[in-house]
Amino acid sequence: MSKVHIFWDNSNIHFVGLNKVFPNKEPGEEPALFRTYFKGLFELAHRNRNVGRAYLAGSIPPKSDKLWDHISKQGIQVELLKRTSENKENANDVSIQAAMLRTAVDNIGSSDTIVVLTGDGAGKAMGTGFLADLERVHKMGFLIEVISWEAGCNRHLRKFAEEHGKFIPLEHFYDRVT
Asked: Which of 20, 91, 92, 121 would be a feasible disulfide site paired with 131, CB 3.0-4.6 Å?
């Protein structure tokens, strides 16, 4: 039975939603009110298909933050990484891409689907990044789905998904994922 393997760039999904989509969908509302509904987003990603692996990388939260425990209880593997001294994310994308490639190698020959929640297409010219790695897993025979906000998706990543798999715009599911 084929499976879906889900790889989630939480900061990209959250901050594009907060900064680009929320102001248009809910003009005049306080940005502090924006929340990602993780269960709804996960359900959209798997759509009642058999989940092989679900992986999300994020930054270490304050001790009082229960967010990552909530996500883990849904069956999503959470990788927490320390922030830099400038309080910026450190290697989250690389962690997600490594997990995706390892999962692809472990499942070569299957008819599985790789689902990526991101809009980040940077690094292609250097052979790195989500787009370059999705091209690799597609060449291995995997089906590809990219779930992203249209408002913040790299145009090359979107085009690749549309031509070689599926592109699913989150704006169409705003009420289910926020």
From this structure: 121
Q: What is the rounded radius of gyration, in angstroms, for the C-alpha atoms of the chain? A: 16
105-117 tens-digit pLDDT? 999 999 999 999 9
Q: What is the largest CA-CA distance in the chain?
A: 50
Distance CA 36, CA 56 (A): 14
pLDDT tens, residue by residue, 24-43: 999 999 999 999 999 999 99
What is the DSSP secondary-structure string of 64-132?
A: T--HHHHHHTTT-EEEEEPPPTTS---SHHHHHHHHHHHHHHHTTTS--EEEEE----TTGGGT-HHHH
Of 157, 117, 162, 102, the C-alpha closest to 134 is 157
- pTM attached to this predicted model: 0.92
